[in-house]
Design goal:
- The chain has 469 residues and is an alpha+beta fold.
- The chain has five domains: 4-33 and 203-259, Nucleotidyltransferase, domain 5 (2-Layer Sandwich); 40-111, Nucleic acid-binding proteins (OB fold (Dihydrolipoamide Acetyltransferase, E2P)); 114-193, no CATH class; 266-386, Aminopeptidase, CATH 3.40.630; 402-465.
- It is built from twelve helices and 24 strands.
- The protein has a six-stranded mixed beta sheet, covered by helices on one side.
- A hairpin with an 8-residue loop joins strand 7 (91-98) and strand 8.
Length: 469
């Protein structure tokens, strides 16, 4: 039976969280990655672009946020716009849906959602739903009836969350009324506001505990007393209580979380069977290649391909979630000759992808045999805070080959005139061509001093000294 540990790390810059399953990293959360997601703002329309079906909304400092105009339903127009049409300068109530990236503005929505432990309240929707992660049909019916009663009484949309499973109706209604009270406060503050500003944001510690603490967690590790205070607030509703462990200092150090994070920058990820997956990321596309490598435990090639593909599918979902990869993902699995094996792989991947529901959707195989996955991303990828572009290769992962660089060095030296000595500085990776450089000295018949201390593998430095210098 797997052991699930929730590691909560409260530090001076914010809160971080890791979920370990049998010691392996499964989930990561850093509040700086999702600093604005879920925040509710007073915004002002700066520009309307009919061709895009969108408006740009000022919500504070920085770039204006992007709003899709088709989200403005009749209820929102009546309550927020007083029945008027949208125009530049209009005051809006919006919520951040997606964080900004280097190339895109943040996206905001008018479909406000107030999330509490057991419910999400939607003041401008008439939706009624129950989390898909709750599988028991009797429990789904019970929760749906509770949600319907609350909707009829309060005339708002409501979705019951996974954490409500097994919780009695009185507690769920109490939680709903807390969300309702918050909404009334937000609406009142909006009506008084005159300039763009934040109206509501969740405490990041409460947010991560609310999202990550559930009955599947066997152990919670924390490092501050204030974490325990928030934990106790949510623990009383859990039918199965986890073990609590306090550690001094940084729990990410003790549980080697930082070492595990470093591995997330790797392009090649090994599989336990001996195969690997290779992850290449572009601006709007991620390509993943599956290789069997040294795995020879299967009896035939088809069996080996299926075995490696099934294992790779699990690692791919894990890596995509951990790295927070969004957009289009193409996976080049090892080719399967039998249709039933291809279907088995597809079913297996779709089942695993439910861990990331509703963000991840497995579309199926293309005509070229590549598997298509799309994933919604509301926050920045993990790469954006833990890794920067290499100043040498500018993110390409490539530098000029030593053989080509040697040819350029020889060409540049042959052009020199009137010198008695040359000092050549090259990068240490040119040390394998020491023999060729020695031959160059003999060819020139003059002094050639070579230093392997140049910092850039893409270039070199040549200093020609004349007699008496």
């Amino acid at each position: 039976m797997e052991i699930r540990e929730l590691i909560l790390n409260l530090h001076e810059d914010g809160v971080a969280c890791a979920v370990l399953v049998d010691g392996e990293l499964e989930e990561l959360f850093f509040d700086e990655l999702e600093a604005n997601v879920g925040k509710i703002f007073v915004g002002k329309v700066e520009k309307i672009v009919p061709g895009l079906g969108a408006a740009f909304v000022k919500v504070g400092k920085g770039k204006n946020s992007f709003l899709k105009l088709n989200e403005l339903n009749s209820l929102y127009k009546r309550l927020i716009l007083n029945g008027k049409e949208l125009e530049e300068g209009t005051k809006l109530l919006v919520q951040t849906k997606k964080e900004a990236t280097d190339s895109k503005s943040a996206q905001v929505t008018t479909q406000i959602g107030i999330a509490e432990r057991f419910v999400v309240l939607f003041p401008f929707k008439k939706v009624v739903g129950v989390s898909k992660k709750i599988k028991n049909e009797d429990e789904r019916r019970r929760l749906k009836e509770i949600a319907l009663r609350l909707k009829r009484t309060h005339n708002v949309g409501i979705v019951v969350r996974t954490a409500a499973e097994g919780v009695d109706e009185q507690e769920i209604e109490k939680n709903f009324l807390e969300a309702r009270k918050k909404w009334e406060q937000i609406l009142g503050d909006f009506q008084k506001a005159r300039a763009p500003k934040v109206l509501y944001e969740e405490n990041p510690l409460e947010r991560v505990i609310k999202e990550k603490l559930n009955s599947r967690v066997d152990k919670v590790v924390y490092n501050q007393k204030e974490v325990l205070e928030v934990l106790e607030k949510y623990l009383r509703h859990l039918p199965k209580k986890p073990v609590l462990e306090f550690v001094e200092g940084d729990p990410f150090e003790k549980f080697q979380v930082y070492d595990k994070i470093k591995k997330l920058g790797a392009r090649v990820v090994p599989l336990k069977s001996g195969g690997n997956i290779v992850i290449d990321r572009l601006e709007a596309l991620t390509v993943i290649d599956v290789n069997s490598e040294s795995d020879t435990t299967a009896e035939d090639q088809e069996e080996l391909a299926l075995k490696t593909n099934l294992e790779a599918a699990e690692e791919i979902v894990r890596q995509v979630m951990l790295r927070n990869i969004g957009g289009m993902i193409l996976v080049d699995f090892i080719k399967l000759k039998k249709n039933e094996n291809q279907e088995k792989l597809l079913r297996h991947l779709r089942q695993i992808a439910k861990k990331d529901s509703p963000r991840m959707e497995v579309l199926g195989f293309t005509n070229l045999g590549l598997l298509e996955i799309v994933r919604k991303r509301t926050s920045r990828s993990l790469d954006s805070i833990f890794f920067t572009k290499c100043p040498v290769c500018s993110g390409t992962g490539k530098v000029i080959s030593q053989r080509l660089l040697l040819k350029k060095i020889v060409s540049d030296i042959r052009k020199l005139e009137n010198y008695t000595e040359i000092v050549l500085r090259v990068h240490p990776n040119m040390s394998g061509y020491k023999g060729e450089l020695e031959k160059l000295r003999e060819t020139l018949g003059k002094r050639l001093k070579v230093d392997f201390n140049w910092p850039d593998p893409n270039s070199y430095d040549i200093t020609a000294r004349k007699g008496g210098a």
